Amino acid sequence: MTYTAPVKDISFVLNNVVGLAEVAKLPGFEDASPDLVEAILEESAKFTGDVLAPLNWSGDQQGSQWNDGVVTTPDGWQDAYKQFVENGWGSLSFPPEFGGQGLPMCVSAAVQEMWHSANMSFGLCPLLTQGAVDAIAHHASDELKQLYLPKMVEGVWSGTMNLTEPQAGSDLAAVRTRAEPSGDHYLIKGQKIYITYGEHDLTENIVHLVLARLPDAPEGVKGISLFIVPKFLLNDDGTPGELNDVNCVSIEHKLGIHASPTCVMSYGDKGGAIGYVVGKENHGLAYMFTMMNQARHAVGVEGYGIAERAYQQAVSYARDRKQGKTLLGKNEDDQGIINHPDVRRILMTMRSTIEAMRGLGLECAAAFDQARRHPDADTQAKMQRRGELLTPLVKGWSTEMGVELCSLGVQVHGGMGFIEETGAAQFLRDSRIAPIYEGTTAIQANDLIGRKTSRDGGKGMGELLSDMRATLEELKQHDAIAFQAISKRLEPAIASAETATEWMLGQNDATLPAASSVEFLMMLGRLAGGWMMARSALAAKALLDAGDSDAEYLGAKIILARYYAERMLPLVESSLTIIVDSAQTTIELDEALL
Fold it and tell me: What is 158-286's CATH number?
């Protein structure tokens, strides 16, 4: 159950598809040269392969343990996290003024993929810390930033996101946790559930970001404020001091990610946990969305990261496992099941879809890099729309496909895949949470059809589809059969997405679009993935034409792009029928008859 980070594939996307060189020209990103990024990826590959990956199986079997409010992570976790901090892996994209390395988001996203492939349970701790840092950096007072960000950026303190309550679920308007003003701080009282790494033994302090209501707050989401509630209150010199009134009541027993403690947190059992408001009172939900949107992209990276790990194990098993005479094997020594055509289909589906998802995840991150640093205001605005539009696709489509691909990984193993000792089942179990947390796929889909499509009258969607058509025209300039095959499938897929978008925008009642929203998200995810694969094929062709000697590797990129187009893009066309024709039927059957 080894893991080898796909550095070559990641570098190819960064350098030849999403435009790392252009990102590195932006103010503040000048240090992100290809050579530096390559060195970062190589070192990350060593750390994740040598340190994190070997702990994945043992961590799953041992799990984190709760004992009277104290949570102990599995054996080896503390040493691995210490190395993680010492090597600065958590600080790649953070602001230099707080100790970060100031690298582009697309670079940090590439590294994050390796964390989640190697050990998804481990990667969740820095994932949540990154989101918390983002929220504090954007919205907290300078005083709070100076107190908390340096240690969080360094990684010696971790961060959490406390939204969900037992009665509220995803409906944050129903949050009941209270915040009472008390001098220069607030007293927080309430309970939160599903808090990832809410309690653990990896860091000196845990900085909880907690949504709560003031006594005179308006009803609904407009009455929610955001508070920093540290596990340990800070001494005058900024070091952790007295234990705050914060308690981990229990940890959940879950289907997967056993080593990641999912906590029930209680605030104020002894009178009130001391908290400090972030930004303005009653603006907490907007602030939390800064953290949530960053986390949603990161969870999308998890989706294809865990799928990459499942693929690596599946293809290795398929090479070694011999069963029956194959149709593609050339001699007696070449009879691994990898040479059965249907096993080849599964592996090609896994690899091509992972490459499509990786391309989309890095494209989204690069768009946000452009939005944050580009000197032209119009380009900034367009790239902000692009990043925001792609985020629900990265999160929703990549996590749904991650589960599907991990299931295919089990299928390649046959009966052995159903046996825990092979490890294939763990990837499937771990992957299943990704389409749920940080907003279910339906929540991502509603965000896509609402905030990201209807709100601007389809402007951002129109820009995206226009860029896809530009890629289509590039494909048509090439006479090679592979490029004609890709364009043959991409053209009707784009047209289907345009028609589906028009249908969504043309509905006066939100009910029908909501009934088809997840299909719309999956449609656009598959299409956007096909767009990235087409761009990958064009980039490979350009390198071949320029005399690049790695002809086999580049030729494989073109074959994978064609496979994806011929296998996946027809599903985009069929989605149009599902979106338009099945919406009414979806809501027609009476609840009592379900």
Answer: 2.40.110.20
